Amino acid sequence: MNIPAPENHTDVASGDASQPARKRNIEALTAFFRSGIKPAESHEKLGIELEQTVVRADGSPVSYSEENGIAHLLEQLRESYPQATVDEEGDLLGVARPGEAITIEPAAQIELSAGPFDDLKKAQETFTAYRKTLDDLLAPKGMHVVAQGYHPTATARSLDLIPKRRYAFMNRYLSAKDIYGPCMMRGSASTQISIDYTSEQDCLRKMRIAYALTPILSLICDNSPVFEGKPRSHKLMRTDIWRHTDGDRCGLVPGALSIGFTFEDYAEYVLDTPAIVAPDENEGWRYCEQTFGQLYADKPMTRKQVEHAVSMQFPDVRLKTYLEIRPADSMPVPYVIAYAALIKGLFYNEGNLQQLEALFANVDADAFERSKDALMEHGYNAHVYGAPVADLCDRVIGLAENGLNPDDRALLVPLSRLVAQRVTLADLAERESKEA
After folding, report:
1. pTM of the predicted model, to two decimals?
2. What's the CA gap between 404 and 401, in Å, rounded?
3. What pLDDT does 6 receive?
C-alpha cells in the first residue's frame, strides 16, 4: 500500500502586515496551552472518552430524532445526569453530572467523557455503571450499543446528522476535502485518553512519544472489522479514514516529532488551518473557509475563540490544556480501561519515558507514515521503525506493566493478552463472523 502523505495547508498571510494581530494570537494560544501545566505532585490523572454506536437487534442504525431514538435516550439519561445542553432550537444534545458528560457525535454516536481519574478502579466503576445504564434503557426497545470503531451495518452517507449546525458545516467542508470525511464524522467511533503535563518541555516530550507510539497503539486497539457495511479491506481502517479526511488538520502536526518543536509552532499550525466553523455576530455559528489567522487577522482571540480553534484540529495527538491521545477505536469497557492502564504505565513513569524517548529517537515523519502503510497491509507481521512490530508491542506492554502498581497492572490484562496472542479485536470479530 502506497498512500501519499497528506498535504499541509500553508497560510500565505503569515506576515505581520497582512495579519497585524498574529503575534498576539500566537501568544493567546500559547498562554492557553501553558494554562494546562499541572504541579508535578498532582498531574498523574487520566481523562477517558468512549464513543459507541446504538443499533437495533438486527444491527440497523438508530437516529437522533426517530421515535425512541437518541434524543429520547438522552431525555431518559437526564434523570441521572441533570445538567443538560440544549441548542437554540430546543434540541437536547448532551447531559452531564460532575466528572461525567454524555454527548452525541455527528450521526448520534453516544459518548461518555469522564474524569480526570487518578484511580483506574474508579474509572472502571464509572464506565461499567454507564454501560449498564445504557443497556437497561435500550434493551426494552430492542436496541443495544456496539463498541466497535465503525458502524457495523450502515454506510456513512445513509446516516442522518444530528441537528447541530457545526456538524452541517463540517459535513459540507469535509465532504469536498477528501473521500472519507463523512465516514469519519458519521461512521466512526473512538476511545481517547487524555494525559497531563507539568511543563512545556514535558508536554512536547510526551507529544513526540505519543506520536511515535500512534501506529503501535492503533494496532493494539484495532477494532473496525467492518467498513461501509462490508468486511474491511485491510487492517487499521481508522488509520485510513483519518488519512483521507483533511490533510490540513489530521494525522501528524508538521514538526511535532522534532525536539525543537514548541508551543508557538503548534499555535502557528492552529492559525494556518481553515476554520470551517466560525462564531457569527449573533453568538451562533457560520461557515468559513478562511484560516483562523485570517479570521482573526486584526483582533486578538478571546479564550473562547482559542478553545474553539484548538477543538477544530483533529491530529492523532491533540494539544489542549492536556494531551489527547486519539488513535484507538471504540472498544468494550474492559479494553478501554486496559488502554487507560497502558497509557498510564507508559506516560506517568519517568524511566519509561526515558526508554521510549531513546527507542523512538530516530522516528521522523517519513518513518511515521511508512509504519501506517505497513500496519494496514501486514498487521502484526509488519516491520515498524526497522523492527518487527510484534516485538515493539511486547516492549510497550512490558514497560507499561513495570510502570504500574499491581492493581492497575491487573487491569491491563485484556490488552496484554491480545498482544501476546498477536491478534486484535477486529481479527476476533472477523473470525466470529466467518464461523457464524
Report:
1. 0.94
2. 5
3. 36
